[in-house]
Write a structure and sequence with these properties.
Layout lengths: L2 H32 L2 H20 L7 H10 L1 H25 L5 H23 L9 H30 L2 E7 L7 E5 L9 H10 L3 E5 L5 H4 L5 H12 L2 E4 L24 H9 L3 E2 L3 E4 L4 E6 L12 H8 L4 E6 L5 H5 L6 E4 L8 E2 L2 E2 L1 E2 L3 E2 L6 E3 L3 E3 L17 E7 L9
Parallel strand pairs: 1-16, 2-3, 3-4, 4-5, 7-8, 8-9, 9-15
Antiparallel strand pairs: 2-16, 6-7, 10-11, 12-13, 14-15
Length: about 425
């Protein structure tokens, strides 16, 4: 089962779950509306007396006159707030359900509001048939205000998330190494088969000397499709600058360590896929290195996730660490750097995979695959020679928050004033 099929299954599950919650919410509203006046009043008195205690003191200890005063003053507020909560929750659930389909946020917002208001009208009409109950236009307006408040908050959150995820930016790092030539490097990590046009525009404007793609350009299912956007990205990159591509966990179909139901066993690339990559003009490196005519030596470590462990190929790393030239290592997993790469003197390592920690709070990531909660290595530069990209896109259902995707540009021998940002 490919990653896209898994996403579809998860999406169906989410829709079913939300649909059940919507029906439960409607059922609760229907149940309370079906109560006659006496039962409804008793229920309101119980809730109202419990909620009034922090404000007015214990309800049961009051005199009849004081109880009546609380009923007249406080209980109506409780009932109206209950309406706002019931229909606000219903509106939010309907909106979330609609958001599981791609579409215009504002149209989905309007549809959620309309559906909730229609149910509020039907609820008031239903009450008109219940003994001692009446229907009121004011109650419909209160119900609608609850849906408006809850859905508007969701709309604001969605707008902020979508703006953040689409706000691809370029991050510039100026490094120094006495062995390095004057060099501009673009790091394009974790595109995950997304629309490549904006990253390509940024890369073209940056005019790099090298383009490095440290894994998760696309999933294993995309690799089998000749028309996949990842191949277009490779082809366009190769026309801009020499492009080097290594394999991440998604290319080899190892999405998470230790989960047998998610293909923990690596799937080797077929000769047909390798030939297709070569045709783009990009250089595919699989646990191997090449020495360029300009003295740069470039190596790529294929993702080492194999279901039992997660570590790089030791022989490839040892051979590269002992090689000559200015060495640049493509390593999809930033968690490899400290235990395996830092002990060497490799001049530059570029990584991705961590997606910036998905949510960034006070500049720190919240979760990263391979590192878990509150990971240490999600973005920035380690030891002045390991650069971690937050990635070009978001492929998960969980949105990126305070974590804009990025194209990383690395400079050796450049003054910041020379670069137009």
């Amino acid at each position: 089962m490919g990653i896209m099929k898994k996403k579809n299954v998860l999406l169906i599950f989410i829709r079913i779950f939300l649909a059940i919650l919507i029906l439960l919410n409607m059922s609760v509203i229907f149940f309370f509306s079906a109560q006659d006046y006496q039962a409804s009043s008793q229920a309101s008195d119980k809730i109202g007396s419990a909620l009034s205690t922090p404000i007015y003191g214990k309800f049961e200890d009051k005199t009849p006159w004081e109880k009546e005063e609380v009923r007249l003053e406080f209980f109506p507020i409780v009932r109206k707030l209950a309406h706002i909560l019931e229909f606000g929750t219903l509106g939010a659930l309907i909106y979330l359900f609609l958001l599981t389909w791609k579409g215009n946020l504002f149209l989905q917002y309007a549809c959620a509001l309309a559906a909730t208001v229609l149910y509020a009208i039907s609820d008031e009409w239903h009450q008109s048939f219940v003994n001692g109950r009446t229907s009121k236009a004011l109650d419909v307006l209160i119900d609608a205000s609850g849906a408006l408040i809850f859905c508007s908050v969701l709309l604001l959150i969605c707008c902020l998330i979508r703006k953040g995820e689409k706000n691809l930016k370029t991050t510039h790092y100026f490094l120094s190494n006495h062995r390095a030539p004057k060099l501009k490097i673009a790091v394009a990590a974790d595109l995950h088969g997304s629309d490549p046009q904006k990253p390509l525009d940024l890369i073209k404007n940056a005019n790099p000397d090298l383009i490095l793609i440290p894994g998760d350009l696309m999933d294993d299912a995309d690799l089998r499709a000749p028309e996949a956007s990842g191949y277009t990205f490779l082809q366009k990159c190769a026309t801009i600058a020499p492009t080097y591509y290594s394999l991440g966990n998604h290319e080899i179909a190892c999405y998470h360590r230790g989960n047998p139901w998610r293909h923990p066993v690596p799937l080797p690339l077929t000769d047909e896929i390798r030939a297709r990559i070569v045709q783009t003009g990009a250089h595919l490196l699989e646990n191997e290195s090449i020495l360029r005519e300009d003295g740069l030596r470039i190596c790529a470590l294929t993702s080492g996730i194999n279901g039992k462990e997660n570590k790089p190929d030791a022989d490839t790393l040892a051979a590269f660490a002992g090689a000559s030239g200015f060495r640049i290592l493509l390593c999809h997993h930033p968690e490899y750097f400290v235990p395996y790469i830092r002990p060497t003197d490799i001049e530059l390592t570029v990584c991705g995979h961590a997606h910036g920690g998905q949510w960034r709070i006070f500049g720190k990531g919240v979760y990263a695959p391979g590192q878990g909660l509150f990971p240490k290595y999600t973005s920035g530069v380690l030891d002045g020679r390991c650069v971690i990209s937050r990635g070009l896109s978001n492929h998960a259902f969980v949105p990126r928050i305070f974590n804009a995707p990025e194209l990383v540009m690395i400079y050796f021998g450049y003054d910041p004033t020379e670069i137009k940002k």
